């Protein structure tokens, strides 16, 4: 009986402690947000340059989950992220139409390039990406595909379709199911062709004899968008933090930080948020 009374006396203390924990957890959540983004933006080094400036301006920490764009969009659909930073405009607009994101705003662009062995055994070099893909399919060297539903993979599949192949399954076509960095490493170690965003390529240190072979085609344009996840679908998301990030990264301050990111004097991304 005495034991029961003793526990009863402690109950208010335990409740108070639990309340403190919950409040602390809520404050931590309010001071941070989860961003699902692409391996290309992460591996290009952009976020290491961009996010400290965002934290300095807002006090918010950002946890980046770097996956393929398709997986990032799935995270938004499930409510596993607060904001998305991706590059597959058709899929992004569909997410907004479905109500899982409140809006989609353009934030920056760069371009895709086709890299491959400098000797270019398939003779793809030039500015025509469709012709290059046709030659790569017929040539002796392998073609490495990310095969991961990323924005780069989606772009690659569009080029194959334009080249007359809905499902590229030729003998030298290799899907790695991996991020941009590992795909480049595979191409470098095997002397293969691979489509990459220019930002990751410029930050890639293990090039071996790879070189940029195809660039400058207008179809290689690579647009990035930012999307806050809809709190009416997922009330637990940090909607206020996501709004702060979207407003900042599309503001003159955020756009200036993006423009200032360079490697070897070369700008990796070009801001183009709507004024």
UniProtKB/TrEMBL annotation:
Residues 28-252 form the PBP domain. The keyword Signal applies. Keywords: Signal. InterPro entries: ABC-Tungstate_binding, PBP_domain. Residues 1-30 form the signal peptide. The keyword Ribonucleoprotein does not apply. PANTHER family: EXTRACELLULAR TUNGSTATE BINDING PROTEIN. This is Tungstate transport system substrate-binding protein.
